[in-house]
Amino acid sequence: MASDGEKGNFSADIPASILEEALRSVERHGPGEDPPEGPSAPEEKATPAESSLEAQLALSQEKGRETLERLKEEHERYLRAVADLDNYKKRVAREKEDLQKFAAERIVKDVLPGIDNLERALAAAAADDPLSGGVRMVLKQFEEALARHGVKAQSALHQPFDPRFHEALSSVEGSGHPPGTVIAEHGRAWLIHGRLLRPAMVAVAAGGREPPASAPEGAPG
Asked: Residue 6 — very low, low, confident or very high, per pLDDT cuts 50/70/90?
């Protein structure tokens, strides 16, 4: 222990090598710099296990996208198949309905000449012919029976000629009717459920309208 005369003087037995090392440390860090509190943290690097997991995750995401695209394509193909099937069912139902509606078409065509003959017989019969009533009743029964199966007659008499429903057998000059007017009908048009079964067989006016002799001058014909 130091004596009172030596009070204020610092003395210690410190090896010279320790002092030199302390001085070198001060010189390295410079004046006023605090020495590092501890060793610097090393830069973190991914471990092999982490790198493997990241690669597997990326691969799984890629496969997921590919699977989603395949599912989308399959869904679109499914929707197209459903639409095609629905259209097929509708077409089959329509064809079946048409088959039922027009099944009697051939038979009706075979019956129409007989109906034409009944109409011609009525047109040629005298007004007081007692058989006319019976023929007219038979013709009416035929028409009612055909109507129950969607078959109806359509008269063209005094109508403008329509090539969709009329077949011109002859043209008549100087008939007193406008050109193209049906002036005679040798057989009515027949339709089955709105579809033409047979066109009307007609005669058509070819000349211009001839005004009546009694018509005043300037009056419409």
From this structure: very low
Quote the number of domains for the chain.
Answer: 2
**Which residue range is the domain that position 162 belongs to?**
105-205
Same domain as 127, residue 72: no
Average pLDDT over residues 13-22: 62
Looking at the structure, do residues 88 and 136 belong to the same domain, yes or no?
A: no
Residue 194 has pLDDT above 60, yes or no: yes
In a domain, 73, yes or no: yes
Q: Please give, one letter per residue, the 3-state secondary structure of the chain.
A: CCCHHHCCCCCCCCCHHHHHHHHHHHHHHCCCCCCCCCCCCCCCCCCHHHHHHHHHHHHHHHHHHHHHHHHHHHHHHHHHHHHHHHHHHHHHHHHHHHHHHCCCHHHHHHHHHHHHHHHHHHHHCCCCCCHHHHHHHHHHHHHHHHHCCCEEEECCCCCECCCCCEEEEEEECCCCCCCCEEEEEEECEEEECCEEEECEEEEEECCCCCCCCCCCCCCCC
**122 & 182 share domain:** yes
Whether pTM > 0.85 for this model: the answer is no
* Last residue in a domain, options 33, 67, 101: 101
Co-location of 75 and 165 in the same domain: no
**143 lies in the same domain as 119:** yes
pLDDT in tens, 59-105: 888 888 888 888 988 899 999 999 999 999 999 988 888 888 888 88
Question: What's residue 57's pLDDT?
Answer: 82
